[in-house]
Structures are given as C-alpha cells and as structure tokens.
C-alpha cells in the first residue's frame, strides 16, 4: 500500500476452485459485509476469476448498503488458488477490471491463509484437504513446500489416501496382499474391479478424496490395511510439519478437511507444535491489503 494512501475500507478475497468469498471491513475492523460467488482459481481463466471476484465484492457491498463508489477509498487483498509464481500475480493484477481501487494486491491462497493464521507473525500452515502443501512465513519470508499437483505430489492428503486405498484393494483382489473388509468394501463400492479402470480415467482428486471416509470407517473397525494407509498419511504430514519446524517456524496450523480426522494419528512431536489459527483466510487477505506495496510475497520462481 502506498504511504500516502489511508484506506477507509478493506476488502479481503478468498478465490478458490469452487467458490470465491469476499469480506468488507472498515478502518477500525468492523465487518460490514460478507458474500460469496463462483470459483476464482486463476487456472480456470482470469476472465472467469475476475467475474466472480467482482460478483462476491458487489454482494458484500450490497450487504453493507454501499456501492462501488467506495473503491477509491478501499484497499483490496486477493488470496487466489492457482497463483504459483510472481508472474501469476502480475498477470492477475493486469487483468483486473477498471474498478479504481485505492490499492490492490494479489498472492497465493496459502500465503494469505498463513498471514491470517498467525496474524502476520512467523508460523506455518499444513494444508491437509483434498490436496496437500506446506507454507511457512519465517522472518517475513515465505517458504512453499509441496503442492505440485495430484500426479506428482499431494502426499498427506485425502486424495492420496483414497488413491492408495483403491490401489491396495486391487492388490488384494489379485491375491498379492491379504484381503480385508476395506478391500472388499471398495470393490463393492465400484461394483466390479474392472469398473475402477473406467472410473480412474475420468476421476479427479476430489473423487479420490471422497473415498477417504471409507478408510477411516474401517480403521475404527481395526482393519489392518486401513490402519496402515492412515498411518502412512499421518507420517507424510509429520514429515511436512517437521520440515517447517526445521526451517524455523515456531508453530504450525493444520488446516483442511482431513485435519480433524488425521490429527489423532499424528506423532506426539507433531501434536506438540500444532496451533489453532488466530484468524481465517479472509482476514489474512485483509492483512495482505494492509501491507505496503513492497512487502515480500514468496512464491515459486518463474520458469
């Protein structure tokens, strides 16, 4: 944010792959309006992303009884899925509509999530949802780890757990490993082993992740294969979090839908460094909006 600009309003935007949310606060921190619209992952196209960013902002303004007339007095922080490199930030801002915002900053969603979790202080987040990745802010510098996509990475995620469970079920079906209730349940879920081939050709990570509750259900019934799969998932998360601590993060927040389910399976060393987020990703985006234009946002290097 420019030194000569004193915003009267702050907008925080969380643009994900399924929805985009916006929160409007005034200069003393009161929430004036909050709303959501469609997806704003920039990999879906910048035109679509900006259409939904502006839709969520307009809805938040409407709830506050305000209009776009306040834009010149407003600083905006965007935390967007699909942002990976500095060039992604640049092209996202260049594609912005002529909205005359007082200030506009963009960063990856994981950066603003980490800002919010520790209110701008040092710390790390471990995302354990459909996918997985780590991000730590240490002495003001960001450190992204993992998050290279389902085909190449994403260990410690619900999608990886579901994928590995299907693979284990097929292995048991072929007689290469002992059968178990989990293996039988997964085969029955698809109706026939051959049906899994057709399904896998069109399945998305979220489809694999949707199978993870079956694994946890059978682990509670002491199914050996299910327990082994969950223990491996927990060990992968342990590795990510230990790496963040080694980098210098004093504490780490475990976030994402898999988090509450996997937490009991984590090592004692991991549990000892876990913290609860101080605020959410929308307030992290507002913190981004409050930062000066030259504040560091660490992303992966451009090719």
UniProtKB/TrEMBL annotation:
Transmembrane segments: none annotated. InterPro entries: ATPase_BadF (IPR002731), ATPase_NBD (IPR043129), Euk-type_GlcNAc_Kinase (IPR052519). Pfam families: BcrAD_BadFG. Residues 11-258 form the ATPase BadF/BadG/BcrA/BcrD type domain. This is ATPase BadF/BadG/BcrA/BcrD type domain-containing protein.
């Amino acid at each position: 944010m420019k030194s000569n600009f004193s915003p009267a309003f702050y907008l925080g935007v969380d643009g994900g792959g399924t929805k985009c949310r916006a929160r409007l606060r005034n200069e003393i921190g009161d929430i004036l309006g909050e709303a959501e619209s469609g997806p704003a992952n920039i990999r879906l196209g910048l035109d679509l992303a900006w259409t939904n960013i502006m839709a969520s902002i307009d809805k938040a303004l409407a709830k506050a009884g305000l209009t776009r007339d306040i834009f010149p007095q407003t600083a905006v922080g965007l935390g967007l899925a699909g942002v990976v490199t500095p060039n992604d930030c640049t092209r996202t801002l260049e594609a912005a509509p002529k909205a005359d915002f007082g200030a506009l900053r963009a960063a990856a969603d994981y950066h603003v999530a980490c800002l919010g979790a520790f209110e701008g202080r040092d710390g790390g987040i471990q995302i354990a949802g459909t996918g997985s990745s780590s991000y730590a802010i240490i002495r003001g510098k960001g450190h992204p780890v993992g998050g290279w996509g389902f085909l190449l990475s994403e260990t410690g995620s619900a999608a990886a757990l579901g994928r590995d469970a299907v693979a284990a079920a097929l292995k048991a079906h072929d007689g290469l490993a002992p059968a178990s209730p989990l293996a039988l349940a997964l085969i029955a879920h698809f109706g026939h082993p051959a049906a899994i081939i057709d399904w896998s050709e069109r399945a998305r990570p979220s489809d694999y992740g949707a199978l993870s509750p079956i694994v946890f259900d059978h682990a509670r019934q002491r199914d050996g294969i299910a327990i082994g799969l969950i223990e491996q998932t927990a060990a992968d998360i342990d590795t990510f979090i230990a790496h963040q601590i080694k980098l210098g993060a004093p504490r780490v927040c475990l976030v994402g839908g898999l988090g509450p389910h996997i937490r009991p399976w984590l090592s004692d060393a991991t549990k000892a460094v876990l913290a609860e987020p101080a605020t959410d990703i929308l307030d992290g985006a507002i913190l981004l909006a409050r930062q000066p234009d030259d504040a560091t946002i660490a992303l992966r290097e451009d090719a």
